[in-house]
Amino acid sequence: MSDKAILEINAQKYEFPLKTGTENEVVVDISNLRSLTGGISTLDSGFKNTGSCESAITFLDGEKGILRYRGYSIEELAEKADFLEVAFLLIFGELPTREQRDKFHTDIKAQSVVDEDLKKILEAFPKSAHPMGVLSSLTSALTAFNPSSVNVNSEEDMYKAIVKIMGKFPVLVAWTHRKKQGLPLDYGDKSLGYVENVLKMMFRQPNEEYVQNKVLVDALDKLLILHADHEQNCSTSTVRIVGSSHAGLFASISAGISALWGPLHGGANQAVLEMLEAIKLDGGDTKKYMAKAKDKDDPFRLMGFGHRVYKNFDPRARIIKKAADEVLDDLGIEDPILDIAKGLEQEALKDSYFVDRKLYPNVDFYSGIIYRGMGIPTDMFTVMFALGRLPGWIAQWREMRLNKEPIGRPRQLYVGATERPFLEIDKR
Ligand code: ACO
């Protein structure tokens, strides 16, 4: 293959280098396009063809259904690693030794107390507030209680900020849940593992001892690993672009939480369950909803189906589907919603509308069914996604700052009014 691309505009030829990644992906490097052509830009709405950075964190091949963190397959990590090991891997680049993992956990636990005054902010929210709005606000509020900026040139400073957010974020997640449930706010238990602690902080009743359920711990651990990173998706790009202005880590992550909230992104897990519930209430007629999804005059979409990058099975969906069966089985739950989900999937996989558009179940199609089996309320699903995505956001923010990326600032094609004279108000 040639090592350059040639662009011809008005009979003038411009050359741009091709760059090849470690997995042989090829990009055209257009970083000097405007300077070479005297101000011509590209237009790529939704960034469908545009790489925003070079990254060594996550590789995915949407055609083949491959997902790897730092070179390790998602299947192997979900089976063999725990969430903290995966977090360490994503952020620092290598799987930790036992000593490194234990130290990481100890340092996180040492930072797992949040300022009591944060409770006053939480108290001010109405119970009806969506947990994602509350979580984003509380995360942003952390900046006020931890005002010192991170010196990104100091590994030690970076590390401190990372263990701080890893320690405090689960407390915010648990408090968001407890506030909504009317339960007293609770701190974690330093003797527990990271995931066990999350479950206890969320579900402990004030008048009884909390008993850990290994099935729930393992299921949540797996779900968090599967959600931990997914290269330059909407929320991650948000974290990187906010951080590119040199805004701090907590502020960047708070922005990422807001981006994740939308139903086309992380909010899809809530939307899937609400859709499955609606289908059940409507008599379970999956064919009717398949027809609605295909009708261009109907805004209904089959939530949990389709993906910007995967044009094959989302490998995370395969793992989650299997886990959903196992978890519900272990917990002795028979959920008719799981049957509706499987029915929809079967129909979609043989329907030409979905086949032609390469629409397959994504990570969110089955995750809500597990969350529901675990007793997590529907509007907390996206919060659980955020908890899993936290190490990915941190890793991407850290990489962006260490690579000294410039401030993110896209161009546009202006299509508004050309210059016109101002009209006094009584002449308009
Ligand atoms: N149901 C019905 N039709 C769909 C669906 C769906 N879920 N998804 C895509 N399509 C159709 C579109 O209508 C379009 O059809 P057309 O070519 O006839 O106009 C075609 O498939 C391509 O869809 P786009 O919206 O252009 O694809 P895009 O890459 O922009 O969107 C997205 C991807 C947002 C994920 C989309 O598939 C969708 O809305 N899915 C449902 C929401 C969802 O599950 N989101 C979670 C994604 S995973 C995550 O973020 C964690």
Key traits:
binds acetyl coenzyme *A, globular, mainly alpha
Q: What hetero molecules are bound to the protein chains? A: acetyl coenzyme *A
DSSP E strands, number:
6
The main sheet comes to:
3 strands, antiparallel
Q: What is the residue-mean pLDDT, rounded to a whole number?
A: 94
Low-pLDDT residue intervals, each spanning 5 or more residues: none
Alpha plus pi helix count: 18
Report the principal-axis shape.
globular
Q: Walk across the major sheet and give the strand order.
A: 1-2-3
Order of helices and strands: EEEHEEEHHHHHHHHHHHHHHHHH
Round the Cα radius of gyration to an integer and report it: 23 Å
Helix content: 40-55%
- The percent range for strand residues is 5-15%
- Secondary structural class: mainly alpha
Give the N-terminus to C-terminus distance in angstroms: 60 Å
Q: Could you please describe the fold and organization of this structure?
A:
The protein has about 425 residues and is mainly alpha-helical. The protein is built from 18 helices and six strands. A hairpin with a 2-residue loop joins β1 and β2. α4 (about 100-110) crosses α7 and α6 (about 130-145) crosses α7. The longest helix has 27 residues, at about 155-180. The N and C termini lie far apart (about 60 Å). The model has no long low-confidence stretch (mean pLDDT about 95). The structure holds acetyl coenzyme *A. Acetyl coenzyme *A binds near residues 264, 265, 306 and 364. Acetyl coenzyme *A (ACO) binds near residues 293 and 305.
